[in-house]
Amino acid sequence: MKLLILSVALLGVFLSPVLTTDNVNVNNQGNRGGNSHQSVSIDNQKQVVNVDNNNGWHSWNTVWDYRSGYIATRIFAKKSCIIAPLNKHIMPDVTVLPQAIKEKQKTGAQGPPSKQVTYTVSRNKITDLSSYGKNIENLCRGLPTYLAHEVKAPSFLYYSGSCFNANILCLLGISYCGETFEA
Asked: How far apart are CA 140 and CA 73, in angstroms?
């Protein structure tokens, strides 16, 4: 019986870091338009990251669903949602993301993110969200939703229109460009 209790206790010690949810809150002072607040929730068990950027009308939410292989960003000012493939070579892995965020907070890093990814947004609306996973379906339900594709080598000649830019805790910059962002 003692061996069983000891085994369960050790299993709990080793599994708890894997199954926990990490929450990180960051106040970003000095962004254009005033203050913004970002909160990051990481669910290691479901392999989902949720980032909320609260900055008035310029607020947005993004979900990175590592299991489905997609990210989705809900842009409040545009009253729309964008879904794109999750590039695992650029996006920080769900298991190392908490440590990367803590390092950025410790150094107080500001300025441009260390990695950048640019997407071009399709004009065609997505009608069935179910194939992108429940988390993304819940984020985008009831909104015009568009599919975006990564631009491997962005240049001025490729797209010169408007883009929506999201800076994730100075770790990753995401740009969504396309006609859906024209004024």
From this structure: 8
